[in-house]
Amino acid sequence: MNQNTTEPAVATETLAEVPEHVLRGLPEEVRLFPSAVDKTRIGVWATKPILKGKKFGPFVGDKKKRSQVKNNVYMWEVYYPNLGWMCIDATDPEKGNWLRYVNWACSGEEQNLFPLEINRAIYYKTLKTASAWHPDALHQRPRTSPGSVGRPKPRLQPSSRDHSSKSRHSACSLTAPEVTWNQ
Asked: Which residue from 27, 43, 62, 145 puts its CA 20 to 30 A from 174's CA?
C-alpha cells in the first residue's frame, strides 16, 4: 500500500467563473473580489458604507438532506417540521446567489454579520457599520482597512452559533471591507 498520497489541489475561484445572475443580484454596497481570508475563494467586499442593522438575503441554494451535501462550506441547515433538518446548499454557483461568497471571519472581533432564520430562510444582518473600501486597496497591506493602518477591514462573516434559531451553522460578521463570517 502506498503511503505517499497527496491531498487533491484546491481549485481557486475566479471572478470569470461567477455566474451572471450572481453579479446582477449584488446590492449596490458590495462587490466581489478575491478574498483576503481564503486565497482560493472569492469574497464579498463593501464598496459603500453599510449601516448597522442592514439585512441581506435570503441565502439561495438547493434544498438537500445532509447526506447529499458534499461540501459544507456553502450551506446552511434549516429545520423543517415535516422534513427534519435540510441543507440549503449553494456549492454549485449556478444554484446560489451572491451570499454564497460571504467568507468566514478570522476572529470574533471581526464579526459584523449575524445569520437570521426567517420563515425557513437564512438572512444576514449587520451587527456594526462597515466603511466603504476601494478595490485598489486589495493590493495594500493585508488585514487592515484601505486607507488606514491597524484597523480591521470590513467583511460579512458568520461567527458564533445562533442558539435562538432553529438553523444550524455559524454566526456572521462584517469586518472592514471584505464581508465574511466566523464558524
From this structure: 62
pLDDT score for 145: 32
Least confident of 68-82, 86-100, 128-142: 128-142
Task: Select the more confidently predicted residue: 166 or 96.
Answer: 96
Listed in sequence order, the residues at least 6 apart from 97 whose beta carbon sits closer than 8 Å to its beta carbon are 21, 22, 25, 59, 60, 90
Look at the alpha carbons of 129, 133, 137, 138 in this order and tell me if their dihedral is positive or negative: positive
pTM of the full predicted structure? 0.72
Give the angle 90-92-96 at the CA atoms, nearest 5°. Answer: 45
What are the chain's domains?
Answer: 15-135+167-177 (2.170.270.10)
Q: How far apart are CA 94 and CA 100, in angstroms?
A: 10
